[in-house]
Amino acid sequence: xxxxxxxxxxxxxxxxxxxxxxxxxxxxxxxxxxxxxxxxxxxxxxxxxxxxxxxxxxxxxxxxxxxxxxxxxxxxxxxxxxxxxxxxxxxxxxxxxxxxxxxxxxxxxxxxxxxxxxxxxxxxxxxxxxxxxxxxxxxxxxxxxxxxxxxxxxxxxxxxxxxxxxxxxxxxxxxxxxxxxxxxxxxxxxxxxxxxxxxxxxxxxxxxxxxxxxxxxxxxxxxxxxxxxxxxxxxxxxxxxxxxxxxxxxxxxxxxxxxxxxxxxxxxxxxxxxxxxxxxxxxxxxxxxxxxxxxxxxxxxxxxxxxxxxxxxxxxxxxxxxxxxxxxxxxxxxxxxxxxxxxxxxx
Length: 347
Ligand code: KG4
Ligand code: ZN
Known about the structure:
The protein is of the alpha/beta class. The chain has ten helices and ten strands. The chain has helices at residues 36-39, 47-69, 88-105, 114-120, 167-177, 185-192, 217-228, 242-275, 290-303, 325-330; strands spanning 5-10, 15-22, 27-34, 78-84, 109-113, 135-140, 145-152, 155-161, 279-283, 306-309.
């Protein structure tokens, strides 16, 4: 008897993705179509372009994942889709596709919170413990920087988050100031590895604040001043020496990582006693950052908490983290065919 399977669909931002996943978590087929080249010239994701690109790609992407897995609709137990949060037009394409297939194949529909899925990616590490809850969750992505108390995979309590820019957004904006390709996180990290992190002393906003909130816009402004001085808006004509770029990236990355590490550390100290959450789980695109991974591990070793970071290839948006749908299925949490999108910021 073969394993039960589900189809997971992801289209919240600018990646169109689908995966066929066994109940055991094993992935039989998957496909991701990235839109990076479409948004590059705008230094950010353009919602209308993203929605149109999803529309063109969604069926071929699903088809590819299903063919790779060698399955048909009738072989599936359920169809799952991320319905929140994200760009409205992007979400709509995935949700309409999922509803249509669920109806056509007569299979139950499961709606997923994209942020919960990012953290669930921690459970998809080889050898991860069966039960990783309760734990403190850190989500660091292009749109979010938040701390949660995770009671279970699908019951998360918001502790705090950014009051302005997300960490990934700050990486992308700094990359744009330095004329690096979009999305900038990876490019900034590459240059940072060759730079001097002490060259600039950038602010670590709210690092001593007791609240679990973050702020990265002051850091972004400090980088802007360091590169061009106050007042300058147009960076395109600016000639920045390569060593300056490397040093700015290293100093910027160190500032972001310092804040993320020390706030997570404080949150876990507090909740280890209060809620029995002795483990930190980390997901989202910025969790692929090597410096962040290294410094978090050092903090975990020093303070004696357990650390699980999503594997690098499951940090940025993908449909495999939609394996969380099995948890919703087991809890009997199904969506109806009148499922609508919920674009807004989710706590
Ligand atoms: O999770 P994700 O793919 O999309 C959202 O749900 O937002 O995160 C994308 C973000 C981008 O801002 C990207 O620049 C950042 O993650 N990112 C990184 C790295 N890889 C991706 N930031 C820093 N270092 C990296 N290695
Ligand atoms: Zn994401």
